Amino acid sequence: MKALLSKSPGGPETLVFEDLPSPVAGAGQAVVSVKACGVNFPDVLIIEDKYQTKPPRPFAPGGEISGVVKQVGDGVTAVKVGDRVLSVTTFGGMSEEMAIEAALLVKIPDAMPFDVASAFLLTYGTAHHALNERGKLKAGETLLVLGAAGGVGLAAVEVGKAMGARVIAACSSQEKVDLAKAHGADDGVVYPRGPIDRAGQKALSELFKSACGADGPDVIYDAVGGDYAEPALRSINWEGRYLVIGFAAGDIPRIPLNLPLLKGCDIVGVFWGDWMRRDPKAFSASVQNLLGMYERGALKPHVSERFPLSKAADAITHLASRKAMGKVVVTMGEPA
């Protein structure tokens, strides 16, 4: 089988495309013939050794896949050969076959395309966990989403809307705002590209507040960080919830702690991957909830670009450029 491998820390240019032996399912495992692999911001970090998970090399990047069960190991009863499945894998997805713990596999609806399935769980799972468990978002509240046209951002727009919130999309271009509005955002704002000086940050805070209303947003979903975090927090409503999702801007912000004091607000960390491991029962319920939303048409994953496995390094480069809208997917074999 073929795989894209990281053999030394570095950017996408360090990745190599090689042949490997096909895996064999061990006890409790299943081998999946991978059909598609979603590309996410952690893929940019993990090959540079900047992610919280540091797998031993060589490894393939790719944290979520979809495909068909090819083989099952001893003791596996939850899935069988031929089942259509998706899974969150953290790494290893940019390969034609994977041996995965069978407990991590989720059966997908027959009508769900493989590229959509590979772009589904990590982003929508993060958004649902963030807004439901961590943010306690209520119907009628105002949700501000930073980076609203990216994978996790666009998912938050759709999930927030499905939960009955008024959703404000904040993006770096009008084209991105328009995409977020097409996926349910009620309104949007275009923020400047960084770095942003203090005067610019003050103006940005006013921009967020004017878009959200006099009281500001009740919940902020921030996958961007950097110079955008403090202005967003300054715009938040009394007893609001600021959700720390990630740092696509590159810098981890330093937040003055007088702000949560003055706002009576919460700064809430969201680590979906570890929550999934620590509370599998709640994770399973969240997944079934999301699949139900998808089948009802409330969630419509936007796959903007597809790259064949042989060009998967280009897919990571494209995502790192922050020009991607929606989800980027790697497909196994050359696309038609």
General description of the model:
The chain contains eleven helices and 15 strands. Strands 3, 4, 5, 6, 7, 14 and 15 form a seven-stranded mixed beta sheet that branches. A six-stranded parallel beta sheet has the order 10-9-8-11-12-13, with helices on both faces. A two-stranded antiparallel ribbon has the order 1-2. With 336 residues, the protein is α/β, with parallel strands linked by helices. β8 (142-146), α4 (151-162) and β9 (166-171) form a beta-alpha-beta unit.
What's the total number of strands? 15
Proportion of beta-strand residues? 15-25%
What is the string of SSEs from the N terminus onward?
A: EEEHEEEEHHEHEHEHEHEHEHHEHE
End-to-end separation in angstroms reads 20 Å
Rough outline = globular
What's the number of helices? 11
**Helicity, as a percent range:** 25-40%
The description of the largest β-sheet is: 7 strands, mixed
Structural class, from secondary structure content?
alpha/beta
Low-confidence regions: none
Rg over alpha carbons: 20 Å
Give the averaged pLDDT, no decimals. Answer: 94
